[in-house]
Design a protein that fits this description.
The chain is an alpha/beta fold. Helix content is 27%, strand content 30%.
Amino acid sequence: MKLIAAMSGGVDSAVAAARAVEAGHEVIGVHLALSSNPQKYRSGARGCCTIEDSHDARRAADVIGIPFYIWDMAEEFHDGVVENFLSEYADGRTPNPCLRCNEKIKFAAVLDRAKGLGFDGVITGHYAQMHETPLGRVMHRAVDPGKDQSYVLAVLNTEQLAGAHFPLGDTVKDEVRIEAKRRGLYVANKPDSHDICFVPSGDNAGWLRDRLGSEVGAIVDESGTKLGEHKGAYTYTIGQRRGLGITIPAAGGEPRYVLKIEPKTNTVVVGSHEALAVTKIVGDRPIWCGPEPLVNTEHRGFAQVRAHGSPLACTYVQTGTEIKVDLDEPLFGLAAGQGLVIYDGDRVVGSATVARTE
């Protein structure tokens, strides 16, 4: 097959590209330039959008012996990921930009461009497994539970999965680094990227204030009693305990957690930990990563709402426009805007965006 290897400049994507070449595929390495000014997003090795990363990707491609190009995806990334991040927070939700990047950039814009150029698919260094079944390709968790990225890949539809290749899904991370050293790849010991790549210094609240303002608003309890003030409701998230700007005596002597964010009134509502309990989740914009479950029929499975969270046993129903989930046990601190992923064992059934909870 003719494949595009999306090379971030890290060890995982480099080894994934090398394995694809070794398997006999015709491979071209591509680094995605996600900002017209890379230093605006992040410098150093913390993100995946830097000048240093593009140089590392080029060196890896040279070692592997494949052609290398840089694709300018700055406009698509800004419109589909950065602006979405801002608008979601402005509306009081908590988005996951990695989900949107995989959906809008790495497996939509890149895959579309690759197919337009005559390629069969895209290779990445994500940790997930693809299995061929009589009903088509389906995605499963990676062998390495600590690195499994099926949660952030669950936004891929069946057409995108058909063109997605994850060569590392059957390998643990330590073995990938050992293989990189054996192959002579400069990035063998490069630290993994973390945090949000377009937020300088990892200061999400400060980054949001710079763009959305810092209008002072009230922090209140569930009865409406004012306990303190904040500088931008959107800088808080459901379940947050630290940095609330209130004193414990003012809160009644017990720790308080963010229960609700009301952007229209710029108000943050806080309360007890027990008030965070969620047993029902409704997700909208469902995406199915394989066979679509029967409509209006109860199914058993597992729900996961954080990239590295534990899956919770549940009963779910898909209505055609939503996924409705009843958890066997309560979950604490879930916010609208987070990703909801449904699993059948290790198989990814599909995903949705959390719209509301009970």
